[in-house]
Design goal:
By secondary structure, the chain is α+β, with helices and mostly antiparallel strands. It has 11 helices and 16 strands.
Amino acid sequence: MQLVKMDQVTEVENGNILTPKGFKTAGFHAGLRYSKKDMGVIFSEVPAASAAVYTTNQFQAAPLKVTQDSIAQEGLLQAVIVNSACANAVTGERGYQDALKMRSLTAEKFSLKESYVAVASTGVIGEYLKMDKISKGINALTPGNLESDVEDFQTAILTTDIVMKSCGYTAVIDGKTIYMGGAAKGSGMIHPNMATMLGFLTTDAAISSEHLSVALKSVTNKTYNQITVDGDTSTNDMVLILANGLAGNDSLTPDHPEWSTFLKLLTQASESLAKQIAKDGEGATKLVEVEVLGAKDDEEARFIAKQIVGSNLVKTAIFGADANWGRIISSIGQTKSLINPDTVDITLGQIKMLENSVPYEFPEDEAREYLNQPFITIGVHLHVGNGSGKAWGCDLSYDYVKINASYRT
């Protein structure tokens, strides 16, 4: 296992949801999709403290309601059952009962309390689950800790994704080596406050569900909620974290002297998954990062960054390698944030385009060459305060229309 240092937090090369101690996973083809694996499970050897954040879409899907119920009972989970192909959303009482059945079947399979099982679904909205196939899939899942088990799980949760998304990080807390791993799916309908994405985080840190929830919510606002692909939100999907305590550290709280290290560990993992999702946007050819400095406060900086990266005009300009900074300035001006129209700087990578709101002569060929790279950074300095924030997204290509015009077929 090769490590890559990042201050107190170290990235684990090829890290994944099995990087922490005591976790297993599996994936299986139950027939919900034509050929690809479509059901997966994450399993902890012991009950794990848990926390989650959910889509803010008012049509929350049945699986989310069941997961919320499970976590509310004791704050502990030991298994997460996931299916793709069908979101089980906007399916009424039948859909809710199907989600409950998924939970009970999983609990029976692994001899767990029902409340120790979380449920997640992703796929087409408004269709009922094929419960005979769901039952078959749950019974066939045999969690393991091999690389192939991770790949099976990650394949099972994908929809229009092109690539699997995973990460692993480590830090030392209380003299104990703590690991955190992650897996995610999502490539479209990603915008404000979680949507059409599933994010799963595992850690062997010792922490209560209450404090884990505090940590996850604070980190979510700076990571998952700062990605956008197309400006739409969906009905499902969440970020869920399990902490089984097998690392043996003292239980973490906000008063713990190394609480900030744990937050950094969680932030690095979450930012990694968020950026991988943005990079894999439907039809995307480029990952775009926008950093805003000098805003009134961090909240406004994050809002402006997301406004820029979410602009269809900005996204199409990037796809076409057109260094049209006017689209960036227009996006900034649409916000109700504190702006001084005479003090804005804009850079594209290291290329200066605007200084104190005055056009800066730049080489078009150099800018075009930069915009043909797979990773693009846009820098904005407002000079009105000390706030800073980032957001991530992608370009908008012809293929995005093709993919979404035939999603159900």
